[in-house]
Automatic annotation (TrEMBL), chain B:
Chain ranges of the Cytochrome C Planctomycete-type domain: 52-115
Entries under SUPFAM superfamilies matching the protein: Cytochrome c
Domain DUF1553, first and last residues per copy: 459-718
One term of GO molecular function: heme binding
DUF1549 domain: residues covered: 165-370
Keywords: Signal
Signal peptide as annotated in the record: 1-20
Domain of life assignment: Bacteria
Protein name (record): DUF1553 domain-containing protein
Classification via PROSITE patterns: PROKAR_LIPOPROTEIN
Record bears the keyword Signal: yes
Length: 508, 771
C-alpha cells in the first residue's frame, strides 16, 4: 500500500469483486456467468472494457454531455500528485468547546467572573440566546490542561487518549467561520455555502476523483449520537447538490440494511438474484436491440454494480472478525452498532476498502448550559475511538494516505451563557475561533498551527477560514480548489465559493 | 512507480478519447466551419460572457481597466489606460486591442490572464476575428427582446408536419441532413402520452380501446380524453411544486411540520380548471391584493410562503426575515423570469445587465410582508403555519374551497401573504449582509428586461401586471420552455432557469418565440399548449435511435426521434401502484407517510417536534400517488431522492435524470415494489386464464405493450423454473411483504413464482421509461 499515487484497491473479501483492471473486469464477467448478451452490451459502449468500468460512473457527464463537462478538465483525474487518497471526517456536531478541550486559556481562570472587555468583543454579533444577557462574565475552564508529546501540545484531562497521540496530530487553533447558528454553519463547512443546494465536500471529491472501489459508494456517511445536548443532522449535508446524484453521500446505518434497500427480500438467495438478473439483462438486451439507446446498456451496468454492492457492503460492515487487540484499541463500544466507536472502526474498514470519503457525524456537543457535566460525558464518548482510529491507520501503514479530520462547525464563547455558578456554566456559539485537528494525508504531524488571544476570543495568529480549510483538504487530495469547478446555471461553482487559500504551513 | 505513471497516462488518454468522442459526435465544435455571417448573440456573446465579462462586464466593482465588453459604446471608446488605442475597431482586428490581446505570444499580456484558469480555443479566436472584420456589430441579448411571432419556415417534406411546431423542427433537421423517425407504434405512443398527461400508465381497458380505435383521429380523441381526467392536474402540478419549493416541513434545524398542503390542493385544482397561466400566477403573486380578494385568491398566495422558515433558537430575526424575502425574490427570478437574479444579491451581476440596486428594487416588492424571522420555536398545531396565515373553516371547504381534501375537523391554517399597512423601507444590503444597509430603494424592475410602468401600483399586484405585460420578453418564453422540457425531456433553452447570457442559447429560437407569442395570443391557455405539443408529429415519433442518429445527435437536440427518458421519482411510484391495482386515486389532502426504512428520521433528529419520529401510515394511505409523500426537508423521502426528486430547499425548474445502482436496489428490494408484485400476482392468479395470458397481462400493465414472442418465452421459462424451484417455505417468506391483505385460496408457490417474474418486469429498463 502506498507506493503509487493512483493505485486502485483490491478489496480484501473477494478478488472477483473488483473491476479495477481490464483483467479483473474480465474475471468478474466470466465468474458470474455473464451471458453473451451482456458482454456484447459492454463492448458496444465503444470505449474498451477497462475504460467503461472506470468511465461511466466516474464521468457520467462526459457520456451525456451534461452541463458539467469542463474545458480541459476531466473529472476523475487529480490535478497534481496527491498526498492523500481518502478522507475520514469525524464531524463533532454541535460545536465542541475549544476552551475545555484543546485551547488552553489560563487567563480566563484569573479573570473568572469579570466582564469581557468591549475592545475584545468588538462588534461580534451575538446569538438570540445571549443577545439579551445583561452581562458577559468570562469563565475559565473547569478542567486542567497538560502538555504532551514532543510537540508539547496542550490537551485537557477530558481527552486522555488523544493526549497520547498528539505527535501524530496537527491542531489548528485558529479556525473561523461566518455563521453563528448550527444549520448554516454545518452547511457552510460541508458545502462552502451557508444556504443549501450545493454539493457536499465528499460529493466534490467523488466528482473530482471518482471512486477506487467499484463495489462500494465513493462517499459514505455514518451517524451516531452522543450524550450531550444534540442538534440534528440533515441528509442535505451529504447531498450532491447540482452534481449528478451518483456523487451523493450514501448513508450506512446500523441494522439489517446498512445501505437502503440493499438486502434481497425474504425467500431470495444469491443464486435466485443472479438468475433474476440474467433474465433481466436478456430482456433489456432485446429492448436495446430495438431502441439502440445507450441508457439501456448503462442501466444493465448499474444493476451489476448493485449486485456486487450487495455482497461487498455487508462484508465491510461485519465487525465480528476484528481481533481482540482492535476491540481493545477502540473500546468495547466498537462492537455496538451505531456507536461512535463502531463508526470509527467502520470508517477504517471503509477507507481500507477504497471508500474515498467517509463522513461521520457525532451529535451532542451543544453545551449552552450544564457544560462541565455534559462535555465530560461527551468527550469520553469520542476520545478513545478517535485516537484509536489514528493509531490503527498508522499501524496499518495507511495514515500517510488517509486524511483524518476532527472538529465541529464553530467554537464557543469565552464568557458564560446563563448563570455562572461555582461549578456550573454554559457557553454560547462563537464563530470567531475554534480548534480542529487533522492527522495523516500529508499534514504535518506534531504541530500546533494558529493561536487565539489570551482570552480565547479572537484569533491572534494565522487565521484559517473555512474556505482555506476546504482548499487545503482538496489540495491534499491532489485537487486545485480553483479548478475543481462545475458550471451550473451560468456560474462556475466551487467548494470554496470565491475564496480560500491553501494553508501551506501545515503541509509536510 | 513507473507502472502507476503509465496508468495515469492511460487515464489521461482515455479522458481525451472520451472527450473527443463527445465533441465530434455532437458535431458542434472543432470541425465546425465558421459561419458566413458571425452572429453576436449566437457566436460572440457566449464567448465574451463565459471568458471575458467577469472582469470586463457589468459588475462595476470587479471591472478591470475600466473596460466593458458587453456594451458597444464602451468597447469602441478609447481605452482609459491608453487613449490612443481601442478595444474594438470595426473591420480591423489588427487594430483592435481585444484581438491583439487574445492572440499575443506574451503570456503576461494575453487575455484571459493565466490565473483566471480560462482559455480561448482557436475556433473562438477565429470567430472573434471574423466578427470584428465584419464590423463587430452588437445585438441586444436575444432573451431581453420581446418575442415576435415568426413565419413558419419552409420545409421540403410538407407531408410530415401535423401542426406548426413541426415546421420549425423539420427545418433544422433538413438543414443537417436528418429526417424524422416514423410515428411510434400505438402502444408506445399511448404509454408516452398517458405518462406525460396523467403521470400514470394507461390501463388495460385504455390500451385495448386505443388499439381497437381505427378512426383517423383516434389519437386526438385520446388526447382530449386524457386532458379531461383529474389526474392531469396532479401530473401538471409536480413541476410547479418544485418551482414553488413546496414541502411539509419548515426546513431548518428541528424541521417542524407545516400544513401548507391546502395550497398544493389548490394548484391541482387550478390546473384541472385550466386556469390561464396569467391568472394562475397573478393569484399566487398577489391574490391578497386583488380588488375584492376572496379566500381562494388568498390561498393561492401560499406560493410565496413555501420557503423554509426557521424555528431555531438564538437566531437574529431580521437576518432570517430578509432571507425569506431573498428566497421569494430569487424564485421570482429563476422560476418566473428564467434569470439568475440571485447573483446580484451581493454585487452587480457579473454577466447579465442587472445591478445590485435593481436586485433590491425587485426585493422591495416582497419586503413588505407582515412576518418575522422566527415566530415560534418548534411546537404544536399553532406552529404549523406562520403569520400572516389564513384559517380554513369547514364552511370554506363546503363552498369556495371545496377542492381542499380536508379529512378531519381539526383547525387548519396555511401560511399566506399579507402586507403591512405601512411601507417597510428597503435598502441595498452591502455584500448581501443583513445589517450592512446601503442606499434606500423604491420598488422597481430591471430596465434591461422591461422598465416598470409608472401606471402600475408599486406592489406585488403591479409586479404581476409587469410580468404579464405584452412587452415582457421573458415570462411566456420561460414557461413555454419549462413545459417543453416536461414533454420533450429538455428545454429549447436547456438551462431552463437561466435565459441570461451565461445560459444556453435556444436550440430552436424561432420555435420558442412562435410558441411564446402563440401562448400569449391565446390567453395563456395551458391545456391548449399541452395539446399542441403532444399532437405534433415531433412528439409522436418513435424513440428508436439508429447508430447514425446517435452519432450525429447524441443528445437528440434536433428531435429526429421521439423523447425517451426515465420518468420522475413520483411517477415511478405511481406506475408501480397503478399497474398493480393498488393505487388510491383520491386527490389532495394531508401528505402521507408510506413505507420507509426504519430510523432515518430518528437517526438525524434532535428529538424535538412532530417529525422527529416516523410514524408510518397504514391502509389506503400507503397507496397514494408519489406526490403526496410527506416531504420533511432535512430528511426527504429516500426513494424520491434516489430518483432525483427535488428536496424542495429552493426553487428548482429542472431535475437531473441519473441512473445509479441505488435505483436498481430500490426497484429490486423496496417493499413497496415487492408488495405491488405480490398483489398483482394474486390478482392475475384469480383470473381464469392461461399462464401466457397472465404473463402477457402483467407485461401489458407494467410495460404498456404486448410482449414479443421472445420476451414472453423468457418470462414463461423463468416462471416455470421458479415454480419448480421455490420451496413452500421460501414462498411463504416472499409473500409476507407489505401490509395489503393476503389473498386466500391461492397456491403459494404459484403466487411467489409469478410475483418474482412480475418483480423482474418492474425492473426492466423500459418499465419506468417514457418510450
Amino acid at each position: 500500500m502506498g507506493e503509487g499515487c493512483f493505485r486502485t484497491y483490491t478489496p480484501k473479501f473477494s478478488p472477483s469483486l473488483t473491476l479495477s483492471s481490464p483483467n479483473s473486469m474480465h474475471n468478474a464477467q466470466t465468474e458470474h456467468g455473464f451471458t453473451f448478451n451482456r458482454r456484447r452490451f459492454l463492448s458496444s459502449m465503444s470505449l474498451g472494457i477497462g475504460g467503461v468500468a472506470l468511465g461511466s460512473l466516474l464521468m457520467p457527464d462526459l457520456f451525456t454531455g451534461g452541463e458539467g463537462t469542463l474545458d480541459g478538465l476531466a473529472p476523475g483525474i487529480p490535478h497534481f500528485a496527491p498526498k492523500a487518497k481518502r478522507v475520514i471526517y469525524l464531524f463533532q456536531n454541535g460545536a465542541p468547546s475549544q476552551q475545555e478541550l484543546f485551547d488552553y486559556k489560563p487567563k480566563l481562570r484569573d479573570l473568572q467572573g469579570e466582564e469581557i472587555p468591549p475592545s475584545v468583543r468588538g462588534d461580534q454579533r451575538l446569538t438570540g440566546m445571549t443577545a439579551n444577557q445583561a452581562s458577559f462574565p468570562l469563565v475559565g475552564s473547569f478542567v486542567d490542561f497538560q502538555q504532551y508529546g514532543q510537540s508539547r501540545a496542550w490537551v485537557s484531562s477530558l481527552m486522555p487518549y488523544t493526549a497520547k497521540i498528539v505527535d501524530d496530530l496537527c491542531f489548528v487553533k485558529s479556525m473561523y467561520t461566518e455563521a453563528i447558528n448550527h444549520d448554516p454553519a454545518l452547511t457552510f463547512l460541508q458545502t462552502g455555502s451557508q444556504q443549501g443546494n450545493r454539493p457536499s465536500m465528499g460529493s466534490w471529491l467523488s466528482y473530482g476523483l471518482g471512486n477506487e472501489n467499484k463495489n462500494l459508494p465513493t462517499f459514505t456517511v455514518l451517524l451516531s449520537r452522543g450524550v450531550g445536548n444534540g442538534q440534528g443532522v440533515y441528509s442535505k449535508l451529504w447531498s450532491s447538490g447540482f452534481l449528478d446524484s451518483v456523487h451523493q453521500g450514501v448513508q450506512f446505518s446500523k441494522g439489517e440494511d446498512p445501505v437502503l434497500y440493499l438486502s434481497d427480500p425474504e425467500g431470495m438467495n444469491r443464486s435466485d438474484r443472479r438468475e433474476m438478473l440474467d433474465n433481466l439483462s436478456e430482456l433489456n438486451d432485446l429492448s436495446y436491440q430495438e431502441f439502440g439507446d445507450p441508457e439501456i446498456a448503462a442501466k444493465v451496468k448499474q444493476y451489476e454494480m448493485a449486485y456486487r454492492m450487495q455482497t461487498a457492503v455487508p462484508e465491510v460492515m461485519d465487525l465480528s472478525k476484528e481481533s481482540d487487540d482492535i476491540v481493545k484499541l477502540y473500546g468495547p463500544d466498537c462492537l455496538v452498532p451505531g456507536t461512535y466507536a463502531a463508526n470509527c472502526l467502520l470508517a477504517r474498514k471503509l477507507s481500507e476498502n477504497g471508500v474515498r470519503f467517509v463522513q461521520l457525524y457525532h451529535q451532542g456537543w451543544d453545551q449552552h448550559g450544564d457544560l462541565p457535566y455534559e462535555i465530560t460525558q461527551q468527550a469520553k464518548d469520542v476520545d478513545q475511538a478517535s485516537a484509536a482510529l489514528v493509531t490503527d491507520l498508522k499501524q496499518r501503514g495507511m495514515l500517510d494516505e488517509t486524511l483524518v479530520i476532527w472538529g465541529g462547525e464553530f467554537g464557543r464563547t469565552s464568557y458564560t451563557q446563563g448563570k455562572l455558578t461555582a461549578d456550573n456554566y454554559g457557553r454560547d456559539h462563537h464563530p470567531r475561533c475554534f480548534t480542529i485537528w487533522m492527522a495523516g494525508g500529508g499534514i504535518k504531524p506534531g504541530m500546533v498551527y494558529g493561536e487565539t488571544d489570551e482570552l480565547g476570543y479572537n484569533i491572534a495568529h494565522n487565521p484559517v477560514h473555512v474556505h482555506d480549510f476546504q482548499a487545503t483538504v482538496l489540495h491534499q487530495l491532489g485537487l486545485n480548489h480553483e479548478k475543481l469547478i462545475f458550471k451550473h446555471l451560468g456560474r462556475r461553482y466551487r467548494l470554496t465559493d470565491v475564496s480560500g487559500k491553501v494553508v501551506r504551513d501545515i503541509i509536510s | 512507480m513507473r507502472k502507476n505513471f503509465l496508468f495515469i497516462a492511460s487515464l489521461f488518454l482515455l479522458a481525451t478519447v472520451i472527450q473527443g468522442c463527445g465533441e465530434n459526435a455532437s458535431g458542434l465544435t472543432s470541425e465546425t466551419r465558421l459561419p458566413d455571417q458571425v452572429s453576436y448573440n449566437f457566436d460572440i456573446r457566449p464567448i465574451l460572457s463565459d471568458k471575458c465579462l467577469a472582469c470586463h462586464g457589468p459588475d462595476a466593482n470587479k471591472r478591470e481597466a475600466g473596460l466593458r465588453l458587453d456594451l458597444a459604446e464602451n468597447a469602441f471608446a478609447a481605452l482609459q489606460e491608453n487613449p490612443t488605442a481601442h478595444a474594438l475597431v470595426a473591420g480591423k482586428p489588427e487594430l483592435s486591442q481585444v484581438f491583439l490581446r487574445i492572440t499575443t505570444e506574451d503570456s503576461t499580456e494575453r487575455m484571459p490572464p493565466v490565473d483566471s484558469n480560462l482559455k480561448l480555443t482557436q475556433q473562438e479566436i477565429e470567430l472573434i476575428e471574423k466578427w470584428i472584420t465584419q464590423g463587430a456589430r452588437y445585438e441586444k441579448h436575444w432573451a431581453f427582446d420581446p418575442p415576435v411571432k415568426p413565419a413558419l419556415p419552409k420545409v421540403d417534406d410538407t407531408d410530415w408536419p401535423q401542426n406548426e411546431l413541426d415546421y420549425f423542427i423539420l427545418q433544422k433537421q433538413e438543414q443537417r441532413g436528418l429526417a424524422p423517425n416514423e410515428e411510434a407504434d400505438k402502444e408506445r405512443l399511448l404509454k408516452r402520452l398517458s405518462l406525460d398527461i396523467l403521470g400514470l400508465p394507461p390501463t388495460l381497458e385504455m390500451q385495448n380501446e386505443f388499439l381497437a380505435d381505427t378512426r383517423p383521429d383516434a389519437y386526438e380523441r385520446m388526447v382530449d380524453r386524457l386532458l379531461k381526467m383529474p389526474a392531469y392536474g396532479e401530473k401538471m402540478s409536480l413541476h410547479w411544486l418544485d418551482l414553488a419549493r413546496y414541502a411539509d416541513s419548515h426546513g431548518y434545524q428541528d424541521d417542524g411540520y407545516r400544513t401548507q398542503w391546502p395550497w398544493r390542493d389548490w394548484v391541482i385544482h387550478a390546473f384541472n380548471q385550466n386556469m390561464s397561466y396569467k391568472k394562475f400566477v397573478t393569484w399566487q403573486l398577489a391574490g391578497d391584493l386583488l380588488p375584492d380578494s376572496n379566500k381562494e385568491q388568498l390561498l393561492a398566495t401560499g406560493f410565496n410562503r413555501n420557503h423554509k422558515i426557521t424555528e431555531e433558537g438564538g437566531i437574529i430575526n431580521e437576518e432570517y426575515r430578509l432571507l425569506y424575502v431573498t428566497d421569494r425574490n430569487d424564485m421570482f427570478g429563476k422560476g418566473l423570469l428564467g434569470v439568475t437574479l440571485e447573483c446580484a444579491h451581493c454585487h452587480d451581476h457579473k454577466y447579465d445587465p442587472f445591478s445590485q440596486k435593481e436586485y433590491y428594487q425587485m426585493f422591495a416588492f416582497f419586503n413588505n410582508v407582515k412576518e418575522v424571522g422566527r415566530e415560534s420555536v418548534i411546537g404544536g398545531p399553532e406552529t404549523y403555519a406562520k403569520k400572516p396565515l389564513m384559517e380554513i373553516s369547514e364552511e370554506d371547504t363546503q363552498n369556495i374551497l371545496s377542492f381542499i381534501n380536508k379529512p378531519d375537523t381539526n383547525r387548519l391554517i396555511v401560511s399566506v401573504m399579507g402586507d403591512l399597512d405601512s411601507t417597510r423601507k428597503t435598502h441595498i444590503l452591502k455584500r448581501g449582509v443583513y445589517d450592512a444597509l446601503g442606499d434606500e430603494v423604491e420598488p422597481g424592475t430591471p430596465s434591461s428586461i422591461l422598465p416598470f410602468n409608472k401606471n402600475y401600483p408599486k406592489n406585488r399586484l403591479g409586479l404581476a401586471q409587469w410580468l404579464f405585460d405584452k412587452k415582457n420578453p421573458l415570462t411566456a418564453r420561460v414557461y413555454v420552455n419549462i413545459l417543453w422540457q416536461e414533454f420533450f425531456g429538455k428545454g429549447i433553452v436547456k438551462t431552463s432557469g437561466d435565459f441570461g447570457m451565461q445560459g444556453d442559447l435556444p436550440t430552436h429560437p424561432a420555435l420558442l418565440d412562435w410558441l411564446a407569442v402563440d401562448f400569449m395570443e391565446h390567453g395563456w391557455d395551458i391545456k391548449r399548449l399541452v395539446k399542441q405539443m403532444v399532437t405534433s408529429a415531433t412528439y409522436r415519433q418513435s424513440a428508436t435511435v439508429s447508430k447514425k442518429k446517435l452519432a450525429v445527435d447524441p443528445e437528440n437536440i434536433y428531435l429526429a426521434r421521439g423523447p425517451r427518458y426515465r420518468i420522475h421519482a413520483e411517477y415511478v411510484k405511481d406506475l408501480v401502484l397503478a399497474s398493480s391495482g393498488l393505487l388510491n386515486r383520491s386527490i389532495g389532502g394531508p401528505s402521507v407517510k408510506p413505507y420507509q426504512p426504519d430510523g432515518l428520521w430518528e437517526g438525524a433528529t434532535s428529538g424535538r417536534g412532530l417529525l422527529s419520529v416516523y410514524k408510518q401510515d397504514h391502509g389506503s394511505k400507503l397507496y397514494r400517488r408519489g406526490m403526496y409523500t410527506l416531504i420533511k426537508r432535512t430528511v426527504p423521502p429516500p426513494v424520491m431522492g434516489i430518483f432525483d426528486a427535488s428536496n424542495r430547499d429552493l426553487c428548482e425548474v429542472k431535475r437531473l435524470k441519473t441512473n445509479t445502482p441505488l435505483q436498481a436496489l430500490v426497484m429490486m428490494n423496496d417493499p413497496a415494489v415487492l408488495e405491488a408484485s405480490r398483489v398483482l400476482a394474486a390478482n392475475l392468479l384469480k383470473e381464469k386464464s392461461s399462464v401466457n395470458e397472465k404473463l402477457t397481462n402483467a407485461f401489458r400493465l407494467i410495460i404498456c405493450r404486448k410482449p414479443s414472442a421472445k420476451e414472453l418465452n423468457i418470462l414463461t421459462n423463468y416462471y416455470e423454473k421458479q415454480r419448480s424451484t421455490i420451496t413452500p417455505e421460501a414462498a411463504h417468506k416472499m409473500l409476507t411483504v407489505g401490509e395489503y391483505p393476503m389473498t386466500r385460496n391461492l397456491d403459494k408457490v404459484d403466487q411467489a413464482a409469478l410475483m418474482r417474474v412480475i418483480s423482474t418486469i418492474y425492473n426492466l429498463e423500459e418499465a419506468i421509461t417514457k418510450t
